[in-house]
Write a structure and sequence with these properties.
By secondary structure, the chain is α+β, with helices and mostly antiparallel strands. It folds into two domains: about 5-155 and about 320-360, 3-Layer(aba) Sandwich (Aminopeptidase), CATH 3.40.630.30; about 165-300, Aminopeptidase, CATH 3.40.630. The chain has eleven helices and 14 strands. Strands 1-4-5-7-14-8-13-12-11-10-9 form an eleven-stranded mixed sheet. About 40% of the residues are buried.
């Protein structure tokens, strides 16, 4: 990735920054034999001035995306088609909503995004790719691509919203009595074996801390996914380049690190990403990943915490359902019709499920009625 492709000034999102994307390349998390071949789409003036970009990858599989199209691939290949290679517009291994059609701010921004959208479809057809998939994009981008003929897909994640709590206890006071007691009990039991919690950022992100966290990541990732995506070098690189945008929550017992979760800072959002542990204690995962993130957001006056993909268990801990979006350009007309029919039914299901989950939110009903 060329340094000229810096997105500084385009967006305030850590995952589409040059530092993050280039670190993935330099640490060999993408490229080579990973099945993620970087092919960045650029919008430039005739003089070579960068106006916009899209983080694109040519994929030979569907791993590490968190928007699942394995069924589409299987069906197309059973019918005699080649689903791979395909074009993926995303941040690898990162199910976090953010801009995907990056445009330099100004009156021309809408036109730049429109040109990038048009170019994605043309590139897909011109390079004999089966499809282009833009995942975890913003809702306005999703609508723009829908107008361009991309198929629209939705899913949901669970996010915490901070309306202006002064303390964690203020947050608890907004919950029903039963949920409030449950969270207090879980936090107490998580730390009862003599566990201490530290939040590391900036110069506190030492190589020793990264060594410990990488061991957690490898242990948990190997059991969940079989082959973790991120390399040890990646964590050193982002520690050098993004130290002030990282919050590493680490748990320590008897003088040694035993668990941790990495978070990234945006303008008003804390993004929870990877977690791991080498000792397993009741509720420690909830404490390190969810409660510490809420506490940090409240103390630093952040509006949101995004806790990653999936997990309805987050609902009882103050994280509410929010829609996520993806858009899909499918070259083959028959495959496109089949997927369009499927997505129409899937969107209705996601909407109904989100409404049902929101109704089961742990917050006090009297507060909701006041609002």
């Amino acid at each position: 990735m060329s340094p000229e492709l810096s997105t500084r000034g385009f967006v305030d999102n850590p995952f589409v920054s040059h530092d993050f994307l280039f670190s993935l390349e330099q640490a060999h998390c993408v490229g080579g034999r990973t099945g993620w071949q970087p092919r960045y789409l650029l919008a430039e003036t005739a003089q070579g001035r960068l106006l916009g970009a899209a983080p694109c990858y040519v994929k030979s599989h569907s791993r590490g995306e968190y928007v699942f199209d394995h069924g589409w691939a299987d069906a197309f290949e059973r019918a005699g088609g080649d689903y791979y290679p395909k074009l993926q517009v995303s941040v690898p291994f990162t199910p976090v909503t953010g801009p995907r059609l990056l445009a330099r701010p100004g009156p021309q921004a809408a036109g730049i995004r429109d040109a990038l959208a048009e170019a994605l479809a043309k590139l897909t057809d011109a390079n004999d790719l089966s499809s282009a998939h833009v995942t975890f994009l913003t809702e306005p981008e999703w609508r723009l691509l829908g107008e361009r003929g991309f198929l629209q897909r939705t899913d949901q994640q669970f996010h915490f919203e901070n309306p202006g709590y002064a303390t964690f206890d203020d947050f608890l006071s907004a919950l029903s009595s039963r949920k409030r007691k449950t969270i207090r009990r879980e936090r107490k039991e998580a730390l009862s074996p003599g566990i201490e919690i530290d939040c590391l950022t900036g110069s506190d992100l030492t190589e020793d801390a990264w060594d410990a966290f990488f061991a957690f990541y490898m242990d948990t990732g190997s059991r969940k996914w079989g082959s973790p995506y991120l390399t040890r070098e990646f964590f050193s690189l982002i520690g050098e380049r993004m130290a002030d945008r990282i919050v590493l929550v680490m748990a320590r017992r008897a003088g040694r690190w035993i668990a941790g979760a990495i978070n990234f800072l945006g303008h008003d959002t804390l993004y929870g990403r990877n977690w791991g542990a080498i000792e397993h204690h009741p509720f420690l995962h909830f404490e390190v990943c969810y409660y510490q993130a809420i506490d940090y957001a409240i103390r630093h006056k952040l509006r949101w915490v995004e806790a990653g993909a999936q997990g309805e268990h987050k609902l009882a801990r103050g994280y509410l359902p929010h829609l996520t979006y993806s858009a899909h350009y499918i070259s083959n007309p028959g495959l496109r019709r089949a997927i369009a029919d499927y997505l129409e039914r899937e969107r209705a299901y996601v909407e109904a499920a989100s409404e049902e989950l929101a109704a089961a939110a742990p917050f006090r009903k009297d507060l909701a009625e006041q609002e």
